[in-house]
User: Fold this.
Amino acid sequence: MTSRFIEPTGADALFNGVVGFFTRLGLPVAGSRVLAVRGRSSGQWRTTPVNPLRVAGERYLVAPRGQTQWVRNLRAAGAGELRKGRRAEAFTATEVADADKVPILRAYLKAWAWEVGRFFEGVDASSPDERLAEIAPGFPVFRIEDAA
Assistant:
């Protein structure tokens, strides 16, 4: 399950394009940001809209589509930027262990199920902890902290 990846549909690409456009203008949709990470091979900045999440005072990024390119790039770089309009917030990232993901996934589903719930295949915020733990390996999660 750890190699899970859901290819974006045309509608996904359109939606992400619209969200990214408004976020780049400084008008984020429901708190979205544009994630910028250096490509692991090219070194070029790669961007995609994301939904940052705060749980128990910590901030996280969750990858609802699984092992995406941004996940692979963030693992390699260990840092990136969250952008909104002209503001760019540099951060460092630490991947969260599967055993620690349950409360984060539950909070993510509470906040963002309207947008990403379909990627969770019948699991929602009210699912038992055991079910969330079962799917956790398929959903990379990163704790992000301000870069020093």
